[in-house]
Design brief:
single chain, alpha+beta, 3 domains, 20 helices
Length: 542
């Protein structure tokens, strides 16, 4: 079922993206989740991390004894001058004092599991007709879940009468399309508030009266679609000076919501500088510990750890850097862990051998002689600006009434912005290699060779596909890449008893290395030919 769903979804998903547009950003829109965060920060630059506020800022559930680094950082009553934590891009700033201005982050109970299935199928039939037949056949009957809590006894059968199934390939798009009437109605009734939606994570940014109306609208109209907001579990991010006005605005509509100076939202953060520092420090500390653990595993499984780090782990903090401004300095402990633990573990060298020049080369992409071990301190500003450029059309359509959103326009802008960012990065790396090779012909030749011979680093290890290398094979190749002698190199050649070196091992006709390399190629070719025909028709010449 998952395979069939994936094939059908691949052919139909573009229509869902077009239908949802900039209303619900979870239907496959590239960088949609990033655009919603940038849009909030665009109309409320203070949310990037304000430092000026009236009175002493109260941090919920924070003890200065547990966080001594925050001692004395409470904001003073004097609010004169320029706030260093406010985003510099304040051209479209909508903040108004004494209006309870802030951002509401609304929580819903069991959103995906409680959605009105019949209304969802109705919306899909009229808005996403291309996938409607498959969706109808998939959800026309109650789902069955078998729970076996005691061996030997019959399983408990649970009937799923509402919502979309967890793990269903269509679930995100079906949920987005099914909630379009609710999101469109709220946007039409309260146009004054910015309303970013991502799946069941609804929110609003603006004056407190408008935000309270948004939450009230969800409470009144949401249940018919299976969307049940929980105001008591929702959060409202605002300045201390605006909290009383915000409380009064929500109370006037019979709503109780939690107030805070800062909160995580869609993987990013909205709030004061103090709460932002706490959140970032906690995130970086967790990633630092992860890198230190991976460094220990890399001793035996360097290729696996390298693939997990480059393809997965470092993309997590780069996402945070894309959607959160001014984060570079917080990643210094993480960079120290990469430099002192992970990079040496990959190559079997001492931490002191990774000097500034070598570390910079390792940050380069594979096609520029590096290993793509990015420096998180340096990448923060670049990826953040690239993200804002990528989502510029989406941001404009969300906050400027005269701009009509176009999926095609958004994709073209995103593609161009990503291309520009990549070109700038490659130019910086190329310029560094040029400077590094001045007056050093051997270094220049080696960097040029490494830039053309690093494809094996970009492959995910797989025994089935034959791309898995042993720890010694992978580490020796990395060491040779950077002019380091392989570990455990024998003193003498086993074929001619001459002093062993890398050059001698690659050229000696008496040693076993040349024969081993020849046999590996011959065996691989034999296997491929046998796979294409039959193994009985392929034989190995003696």
């Amino acid at each position: 079922m998952r395979l069939i769903s994936d094939v059908v979804h691949e052919k139909c998903k573009n229509t869902a993206t077009i239908q949802c547009g900039n209303i619900n950003l979870c239907a496959g829109l590239p960088a949609g989740i990033e655009g919603s965060l940038h849009a909030v920060r665009k109309i409320w630059p203070h949310s990037a991390g304000w430092t000026h506020d009236d009175g002493v800022e109260v941090l919920h559930n924070i003890d200065e004894e547990d966080h001594p680094e925050l001692a004395g950082t409470s904001t003073a009553a004097n609010d004169t001058g320029i706030d260093p934590g406010v985003s510099e891009d304040d051209e479209l700033d909508r903040y108004e004092p004494n209006t309870g201005f802030g951002a509401g982050l609304y929580d819903a109970a069991n959103a995906f599991g409680s959605m009105n299935r019949y209304l969802m199928l109705w919306e899909v039939a009229h808005r996403w007709n291309k996938a409607s037949r498959f969706a109808f056949n998939r959800y026309r009957h109650h789902g069955l879940v078998f729970v076996r809590d005691n061996p030997g006894k019959p399983a408990i059968v649970l009937h799923l009468k509402e919502g979309v199934s967890q793990g269903c390939v269509f679930s995100m798009d079906l949920y987005a399309v099914g909630l379009l009437p609710l999101a469109e109605g709220m946007r039409a009734e309260i146009p004054e508030a910015l309303q970013p939606w991502f799946a069941d994570d609804s929110g609003s940014a603006g004056r407190a009266n408008d935000n309270a109306r948004c939450l009230k609208y969800l409470c009144v109209h949401g249940p018919q679609y299976g969307y049940f907001p929980e105001p008591e579990k929702s959060w409202y991010v605002c300045k201390l000076r605006d909290e009383e006005v915000a409380k009064a605005a929500f109370a006037a509509l019979g709503l109780t919501i939690q107030m805070t100076r800062g909160k995580r939202y869609l993987g990013g953060f909205l709030g004061s500088e103090t709460t932002k520092h706490l959140w970032l420090n906690e995130m970086v500390e967790g990633w630092t510990q992860t890198v230190e653990i991976l460094a220990k595993i890399a001793v035996k499984f360097p290729q696996t750890v390298y693939a997990g780090f480059t393809f997965c782990l470092q993309n997590k903090w780069q996402y945070v850097q894309r959607v959160t401004s001014d984060t570079g300095a917080f990643f210094a402990p993480l960079e120290a862990a990469i430099r002192k633990h992970l990079a040496p573990a990959f190559m079997g060298i001492d931490p002191g051998d990774v000097d500034g020049d070598f570390r910079q080369v390792l940050t380069h992409g594979v096609k520029m002689g590096g290993m793509a071990l990015r420096n998180p301190v340096d990448t923060a500003s670049y990826v953040h600006e690239a993200s804002k450029e990528t989502t510029s059309h989406l941001i404009s359509s969300l906050i400027e009434p005269g701009v009509r959103f176009s999926v095609g326009r958004h994709k073209s802008v995103a593609t161009e912005a990503r291309g520009n960012y990549k070109s700038e990065r490659l130019q910086r790396e190329l310029a560094y290699l040029g400077t590094r090779g001045e007056g050093k012909p051997a270094t220049k030749r080696r960097d040029k060779r490494n830039s053309r011979a690093g494809l094996w680093l970009s492959v995910i290890p797989s025994r089935i596909n034959g791309t898995w290398l042993s720890a010694n094979e992978w580490r020796d190749n990395v060491r040779l890449r950077y002019n380091l002698q392989p570990l455990d190199m024998p003193q003498l050649c086993d074929g001619c008893q001459a002093p062993m070196s890398v050059e001698h091992a690659l050229s000696c006709k008496c040693g076993g290395l040349v024969h081993i390399r020849h046999d590996d190629v011959a065996d691989e070719w034999r296997h491929l030919c046998g796979t294409a025909t039959t193994f009985g028709r392929v034989s190995r010449e003696p």
